[in-house]
Amino acid sequence: MMWVLVVTFLIFFMHAGFAMLEAGQVRSKNVANQLTKNLLTWSVGVVAFFLVGAGVSALVGGITAGGSYSIAEAFGVLTTSNPADWVSWLFGAVFAMTAATIVSGAVAGRMKLRAYVSYTVLLAAVIYPVVTGLTWGGGLLASLGFADFAGGMIVHGMGGIAGLTAAYVVGPRLGRYNDDGSVNVIPGHSMTFAVLGTLVLAFGWYGFNVGTAASVFAVENGELTLGAFSYVGRVALTTTLGMAAGAIGASALSLFKTGKVDTLYVANGLLAGLVGVTSNTDAITWVGGIVIGLLAGAQLPIVFEFVEKRLKIDDVCAVFPVHGSAGVLGAVLLPFFAVDGFTVGALVSQVVGVVVIAAWTIAATAIVFGVIKALGEIRVTRDHELEGLDSSEHGVDTYPEFGRPDTAADGGFVEDESGIIRADGGEANDGGIKMVTAFIRPDKLSAVKTGLAEIGAPSLTVTNVSGRGSQPAKKGQWRGEEYTVDLHQKVKIECVVADIPAADVAEAISEAAQTGEKGDGKVFVLPVENAYQIRTGEVGREAV
């Protein structure tokens, strides 16, 4: 029980990985929405699985195995006082929630939260439990010989197929496809988050695979001996090799297709390799671990391109090639690398199992989301999608500030008893009002704020913008696809001055923002016809 609890907690920690991985692959305006979906997947889903899903799984397993199974027995976890039952239920729950959270990455950026949560409830209560009842619950597929050690097909394959189906029903994000069917690349906002999430998932995967050897110890003749732990070494070995080979396979295909090793493909390939060996990791040779991992990683760019360009399905986080097709591949290839040797019967059992699980998942998911779509509740409005789901669905801004708040331009200025003294005896800005507008590198904002504070500049307005000047365009790459970056990220500073000379402000900005390279930006000084202070009603220089 202690062993099972420890690995259960490790698998739960994978949700942190999913949260980071998915958040990194969506736009910054949708990050909070993606994180909220991850939080609610666990919170809502685990309750649904406890109250309904665990019982449904047991019921389906008993019925399809040809035996009799009562409702009371199936839902016995709700009334049991046996701690072992509680631990066993929780172990099953973390696997169920892994399948559920995979779907959120496919439909990111356009689905209503209520639609996603509704599906999560049904997936945890019915859709996933039917699959486990047919397999791990001793049901029909188990009796036919279908094998899936830790859920490569049952959990990941099922989740990836459900995600692909959901993405098809909800439709692509705005701007993803042109009228002629050509594809527009929409990069995520943080490669750092995506890679960090990948490594967190890989860490938790050891619990996912190795932890499935649930009976660690046995007692024989009064002595403690190894139980199922006797094959844990094989599981750890093939899991590690599959993980590494998946990253290598995706890297090789990325290099072949684009001439570059795409970072996101490496990360996604590492996970695809893990998925590929998850169903077979206890029963394959080390050679099988490497080959299956390589193939799972290598198929990733090919399948993603097929889904994106042929099927025209907008799978934001590539959940199908990472989890779906990789899960199918690993389950089908098990007999070819089995320690006990290849048999036609084993291959047939694996193919039948994959087909049944896929058919049930597609049908159930399509029905649920089809009904939600018919009710007009599946997708946010056009305005809300353009604005971002963080604001429209949650009323938050994940990144409310840019630049470090270490220097505040508070609108104050320095003067002596007689006022601001000019060496030439005249008034600043020839007695008028000037606006200094600058476009600078985002990383120079803090230095510019400091420079403005040092000359006593008044308050300023700062805006994130993108634009084009002398800085040359460059090629960007997102999951193996190139796109032209001719609009560069800049920060726009606007500073209206009366008593402070505009030339001083412009020089302070120029000095603080300069790096000597193309793309440093420009500063403009413009006349302002008039100004009105809303609070006091003052007009002209006094208003400024």
TrEMBL record:
Modification O-UMP-tyrosine, positions: 483
GO terms classed as biological process: ammonium transmembrane transport
Subcellular location(s) per record: Membrane
UniProt cross-references to InterPro entries, sorted A to Z: Ammonium/urea_transptr, Ammonium_transpt_CS, N-reg_PII, N-reg_PII-like_a/b, N-reg_PII/ATP_PRibTrfase_C, N-reg_PII_CS, NH4_transpt_AmtB-like_dom
The entry's keywords: Ammonia transport, Cytoplasm, Membrane, Phosphoprotein, Transmembrane, Transmembrane helix, Transport
Membrane topology, as annotated: Multi-pass membrane protein
Residues annotated as transmembrane: 6-27, 39-66, 86-109, 116-137, 149-170, 191-208, 228-249, 261-277, 283-304, 316-339, 351-372
One GO cellular component term noted in the UniProt record for this chain: membrane
Domain Ammonium transporter AmtB-like, residue spans: 2-399
Domain of life assignment: Archaea
Function: Involved in the uptake of ammonium/ammonia (NH(4)(+)/NH(3)). Transport is electrogenic.
Family recorded in the similarity comment: Belongs to the ammonia transporter channel (TC 1.A.11.2) family.
The name this protein goes by in its record: Ammonium transporter
